[in-house]
Amino acid sequence: MTVLPRATIVHRQELTAELWIIKLLPEIPFTFKPGQYITIGVNGIERPYSIVSAPHEELIELFIELVPEGDLTPLLYEMGVGSSVSIRPRAKGLFTLDSNYTHHLMVGTVTGSVPYISILRDYFEHRTQTGIFHVLEGASYSDEFAYFNEFSTLATDNPETVHYLPSISRPEEMRNSEWQGSQGRINNLVEQYIDNVGLRKKETLVYLCGHPGMITDVKTQLLPSGWNIKEERFWKE
Ligand SMILES: Cc1cc2nc3c(=O)[nH]c(=O)nc-3n(C[C@H](O)[C@H](O)[C@H](O)COP(=O)(O)OP(=O)(O)OC[C@H]3O[C@@H](n4cnc5c(N)ncnc54)[C@H](O)[C@@H]3O)c2cc1C
User: Residue 77: how many CB atoms within 10 A of its CB?
Assistant: First the structure.
């Protein structure tokens, strides 16, 4: 049996009852491209997780959703600072920035926004390319927007480069009572956003990440008219 390298949980932050962030210190040098994923495991049960952090950061940051009936996340949920997980030594994935396009329309649901944070952290660390980022983030509840402050600050500080539209799908619920932003499923706002901003197919790549239902729905809307799309499904429907 292959003995896999390990990474220690050195930070844990609860966001909601089902969402939390961990930071891992790997025992081996771990390199990756922004937008790629790491495969972690507990007791031989392994799953891929997109990486929040950018390659220049020392720790590997992950944003995880508990799937109560799942095999791995209930085990991960019990693990605090000082525990360790196995890691596959190589990052994988093709959900990375394509700099052939000027406009990057990045649509994500909850943990599906993870690759976009990594890509933007890396972009503002190096600023070697030019690009305009449109992040459209959907969630049921506003407290699920883990990186709301980071996206908002990037958009405020770089109004020419980053545009951020978070939207909640359950505005009528008490949990969202303080939300003053956009309402409606993010799937239903994509076409309208494209029209409002005047995005053009030739210079725009649409990235879809997270909930498979959102991905299928947005593809159904955009593919017939020839939009270029890149996708990362977190699970099968
Ligand atoms: C490339 C890639 C990147 C990923 N990145 C992340 C990430 O950044 N954060 C993250 O939390 N997860 C991410 N995932 C999902 C992750 O790999 C696991 O599938 C998830 O954590 C559930 O694992 P589990 O063992 O607890 O459940 P499993 O035993 O694998 O699944 C149990 C059942 O739940 C379904 N399921 C899995 N995930 C969800 C979900 N979120 N909501 C509803 N049903 C689900 C499965 O299809 C299955 O039917 C990613 C998946 C892929 C393919």
Answer: 17
Ligand 1 pocket: which of 23, 32, 47 to mutate (most atoms within 8 A of CB): 47
231 class by beta-carbon count within 10 Å (0-12 exposed, 13-18 middle, 19+ buried): middle
State the CATH class of domain 103-233: alpha beta
The beta strands (E) that lie in 36-131 are given as: 37-42, 45-50, 60-65, 84-87, 103-109
Q: Which atom of ligand 1 is nearest to the CA of 72?
A: 25
With a Cβ cut-off of 6 Å, ligand 1 is lined by: 37, 47-50, 63-65, 67, 69-73, 93, 111, 114, 232, 234-236
Q: Residue ranges of the domains in the chain? A: 6-87, 103-233
Segments of the chain with pLDDT less than 50: none
Q: Which atom of ligand 1 is nearest to the CA of 74?
A: 26
Ligand 1 centroid to 234 CA: how many Å? 6
Dist. CA 96 → ligand 1 center (Å): 20
- The pTM for the full model equals 0.97
Residues with Cβ within 8 Å of 169's Cβ and at least 6 positions away in sequence, in order, are: 138, 139, 140, 183, 184, 185, 186
DSSP H or E segment with residue 204 = strand 204-210
Encode pLDDT of 80-92 as tens digits: 999 999 999 999 9
Check residue 237 and give its pLDDT. 84
- pLDDT, residue 130, reads 83
Which amino acid is present at 75?
Answer: L
Distance from the CA of 58 to the center of ligand 1, in angstroms?
A: 25
- Res 138: pLDDT: 98
CATH of domain 6-87: 2.40.30.10
